[in-house]
Amino acid sequence: MKDFDLVLMDIKMPGLSGMETLSQMVIDHPDTSVVMLTAVADVKIAVEAMKQGAYDYITKPFDLDDLSLRVRRALERRKLVLENREYQRRLEQRVEQQAGQIQQYYKEAMEALSREQIVLGKLGGEGQRDHLDEAYLQVARSLAVMAEAREPYARGHAERVSLRASEIAIQLGCNAELIKQIKLAAALHDIGKIVIPDQILFKAGPLTPAEFSEVTRHPTAGVEIIRNIEHFKDVIPLIECHHEWYNGKGYPRKLKGESIPLGARILAVADAYDAMTCPRPYRPRLSNEEAVQVLKKGAGAQWDPKIVDTMLKVLEREARMLKAMPAEG
Ligand SMILES: [Fe+2]
Ligand SMILES: [Fe+2]
Hints:
Layout: E1 6-10, H1 18-28, E2 33-38, H2 43-51, E3 56-59, H3 64-123, H4 129-148, H5 157-171, H6 176-188, H7 198-201, H8 209-215, H9 218-226, H10 236-240, H11 262-276, H12 288-298, H13 305-324
Parallel strand pairs: 1-2, 2-3
Helix pairs in contact: 4-6, 5-6, 5-11, 5-13, 6-11, 11-12, 12-13
The structure holds fe (ii) ion (FE2) (2 copies).
């Protein structure tokens, strides 16, 4: 059948009834507005027709002025729906293009870094390593700043996660290599968020399951961005697993307990605390005390209880230090 802007259809028709035709039309021609006509003034039928996708319902005999008004209204609404859809389509296309450009930029920057590393590696011996580590940490921090520029409320997130996570690692007696990895992973852990479309990242309300599954892509997307950089390869498991839960209910791999790398378990606690104490488009920030309560409640379920305990000590120390600082002004 050819596409029509609008169809006026009687409910009672020979053969296929109006209601049956309506349900078929909604599937085959979703952009056609349907106005149902009937001689029976039955609210139930009217409601049923609207539920099935009719735009309006007119009882016969009808007044011509009323009919033309309703037809005009149905056509205007259809125009609006089509315009909105077109707008949405263009917006999505633009976001996709932008995300593609950013990813391309990252890729080129990473490839350049990779080449640089090979050159530096050839030039220097072991003595160069610390220098190189520091240079890469700076690069990772710059990438974090770039990724965070999109989310004004997230600025400084990676830096704060890095400070607290490395403090936890020190308290737990982790070796210097792991502490170094944690700092690097903290800088890079959310760079994969660049693949999350604006309309999801900045949504003020709760996410639909489909939108949430977009969000859950960011650890893997982050890994994809840095995969080719030899210098970052040891921190891949930490970035990939920073949203795994101690009880196996996290993402992306649903790892459980100590099968989640220690560095990732540490990052998860520092990350969650900072996320809770910063505002988000869909909720205000939690107070420090409220966030501590959430951590305590989630110890053993979302987070490793030993790490939560250590985080609480780190936070107490932080509070003591803040208190000891002279007041401003
Ligand atoms: Fe994250
Ligand atoms: Fe994060």
